[in-house]
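In the laboratory, one determines a bound structure by crystallizing the protein with its ligand and collecting diffraction data. In a computational setting the workflow is compressed into a single prediction: the sequence and the ligand go in, and a structural description comes out. We illustrate the idea with nickel (II) ion.
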Amino acid sequence: MTDIIYIQPLTAASFAPFGDVIEASGHPDRMINAGMCRRFDDCAQLSFADGRAGISVFDAKVRKLPMTLDLMERHPDGSQAFLPMTQNPFLVVVAPDEDGIPGRPVAFETQPGQGVNYHRNVWHGVLAPLYEPGLFAVVDRVGAGANLEEHRFAHDITIMK
Ligand SMILES: NC(=O)N[C@@H](O)C(=O)O
Ligand code: NI
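The predicted complex, in structure-token form:
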């Protein structure tokens, strides 16, 4: 039996239980640079245990839809933010924790320019670009230890539009 998860548009409200949507939307907090720049302050709750924040660049292969979700992961010691370096939408899959394993996943497609920050220890699918190039700046924990917990599903889960 295949479990089907339908993709929904990403909104800050729908994603709030899992993390933050990072985007330039609504009223900026400040105009800076002599009025030449809208600044949107402090868009995400970063959290790192026994380590520090690092910025990495991910060049990820595109995923085709429908996509089989067989693995979810979480990072007990840190949040993880994905900031696209393009205007391409990407797939975001998260799930509530249910006694130490993921509950029913929720799938979103970002709007162009949106990034996400997974809060610490939130179950998520690994990075899944939908269009080339899959280039992202990633802000996550640099420190000792694996900071990784994985869960492989015993049944088929299909993510589709
Ligand atoms: N492994 C790694 O750095 N990336 C994953 O955590 C991911 O969420 O894509
Ligand atoms: Ni991750």
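Residues 73, 75, 80, 124 surround nickel (II) ion (ligand 2) (CB under 6 Å). Keep in mind that any predicted model is a hypothesis to be tested, not a measurement.
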